[in-house]
Design goal:
5 strands; Rossmann fold; five-stranded parallel beta sheet; globular; alpha/beta; about 170 residues
Length: about 170
């Protein structure tokens, strides 16, 4: 597993940086990139190939006009989900039951490479993940009481499923 490349898509990474990323860097098995919004995530997914991608559901659009327009479109429909661009990113990558993927990225996109690490409860996300045909995606809920190794533990769990190991 030496040198696995990991992308963590997390808008609050600056606040979580020391607490959650330190164990990842100290562990030494992973090269970690952090995208703080949908625009950066899109850039990283096009520029590099990752072994593991960890997605927060609530992320801002960033500077890309397409992501800003998507955010405004959701907001103009008064959708409570307008800040859930991580979900829209997954929809763009995998499509859903009715729509083909719209985001073209240069990597082998198997759902087992992805994990959802977010404050939303799993029950709340189940309908959306089911619609995206990602009902079996790895999921972990963030909370104030999680251990400082929570991100590393989750990366280990997702990387285990990439390798076909059961965790």
């Amino acid at each position: 597993m030496n040198g696995y490349k990991v992308l963590w898509i997390e808008d609050d990474a600056d606040n979580d940086l020391y607490n959650l990323t330190s164990p990842v860097y100290i562990d030494g098995r992973y090269q970690l990139d952090i995208a703080t919004n949908a625009s950066e995530a899109h850039f990283y997914l096009n520029a590099r190939v990752y072994d593991v991608i960890i997605v927060d559901i609530r992320i801002p659009p960033g500077k890309d006009p397409g992501w800003r327009a998507k955010h405004e479109q959701l907001r103009s429909r008064n959708e409570a989900n307008s800040s859930r661009l991580g979900l829209e990113l997954l929809r763009a990558i995998f499509g859903d039951g009715e729509q083909q993927p719209t985001l073209k990225i240069q990597q082998n996109l198997r759902p087992e490479r992805y994990g959802v690490f977010t404050i939303e409860g799993h029950e709340e996300l189940k309908p959306d993940l089911h619609q995206l045909q990602l009902a079996r995606i790895k999921y972990r809920q963030k909370n104030a009481m999680m251990p400082h190794t929570a991100l590393l533990d989750f990366i280990n769990e997702v990387s285990g499923s990439v390798n076909g190991q059961s965790n």
